[in-house]
Design a protein that fits this description.
- With 243 residues, the protein is α+β, with helices and mostly antiparallel strands.
- It has three domains: 7-70, Integrase, N-terminal zinc-binding domain (Arc Repressor Mutant, subunit A); 80-129 and 202-242, 2-Layer Sandwich (Alpha-Beta Plaits), CATH 3.30.70; 141-192, Alpha-Beta Plaits (2-Layer Sandwich).
- It contains seven helices and ten strands.
- The protein has helices spanning 7-36, 44-55, 60-70, 103-116, 145-155, 178-187, 209-224, and strands spanning 80-88, 92-100, 120-121, 131-139, 159-162, 169-173, 194-201, 205-207, 228-233, 235-237.
- Strands 3-1-2-9 form a four-stranded antiparallel beta sheet. The protein has a four-stranded antiparallel beta sheet with strand order 5-6-4-7, covered by helices on one side.
Length: 243
């Protein structure tokens, strides 16, 4: 009879995953603080990054140290924002946003990933036009749809989407309105389960079978790269994608 992973093994895997999440958030905090200053009150991008850190149980000391490094109070690494675009198998469009201190390493890693799973790296702008940037505030099934809708629209949200499968709710905003809408929801006593500024495709591309599995592997591989912050695609993956 086979044995599953040990408790220690699972803990090490969880710690490694948590470490990667922290690394990505710290880089985002650093770039946001360097670009817009260390005061989250006047820097919406920094405020969003800090909220993400707190949501991941990152300590305030770690967050403050990252801000101080970015603003020059402490010595730190300077990261550069780079975006790569390409196609996965099945004509699936992919955007890869990176923060790196070594562009040569990063582009090599990203190009290798696309090639390994049957995709190809494209030129700047080759797929970005298929996506739009927006804020998304997600609420768990069972949340008060009417109340969320009223508060969201009053605060300047663009749309409220209710998913019939489980009743989960997404409030969609422009990037500029994201912080204000999030603050309004919280002030109204409506806890946000997840909040982010992201990219969503205007139209999804359905893929199935082996193609879907290759696409899923590529997206997971890219997301696991140290220099990659976010991966966006227009893939509509079938149920067997992670088989």
């Amino acid at each position: 009879m086979g044995r599953g992973p040990s408790i220690e093994g699972r803990k090490n895997a969880e710690d490694a995953k948590r470490g990667k999440i922290f690394t990505k958030i710290i880089r985002e905090i650093s770039v946001a603080a360097r670009a817009g200053g260390g005061d989250p009150g006047g820097n919406p991008r920094l405020r969003t990054a800090i909220d993400k850190g707190l949501g991941a149980n990152m300590s305030k000391d770690v967050i403050e140290r990252a801000v101080r490094k970015a603003t020059g109070e402490l010595e730190g690494v300077e990261y550069e924002e780079i975006r790569y675009e390409g196609y996965a198998p099945g004509g699936v469009a992919v955007i890869v946003d990176c923060l790196t201190d070594n562009k040569v390493r990063t582009v090599a890693d990203v190009r290798h990933a696309f090639g390994k799973f049957g995709g190809n790296l494209g030129t700047d702008g080759s797929v970005a036009f298929m996506f739009r940037k927006l804020g998304v505030l997600s609420f768990a099934p069972g949340a008060d749809e009417a109340r969320i809708t009223d508060v969201a629209i009053e605060a300047g949200a663009d749309d409220v989407v209710v998913y019939p499968e489980d009743g989960a709710i997404d409030v969609l905003t422009t990037p500029d309105a994201f912080v204000d809408v999030k603050a309004a929801m919280e002030a109204a006593g409506l806890p946000v389960g997840h909040a982010e500024i992201t990219y969503r495709a205007d139209n999804d591309v359905p893929v199935a079978g082996e193609t879907a599995q290759q696409v899923a592997k590529l997206l997971d591989w890219l997301d696991d790269l140290d220099d990659v912050q976010n991966v966006y695609s227009n893939a509509d993956l079938g149920e067997g994608a992670y088989a």
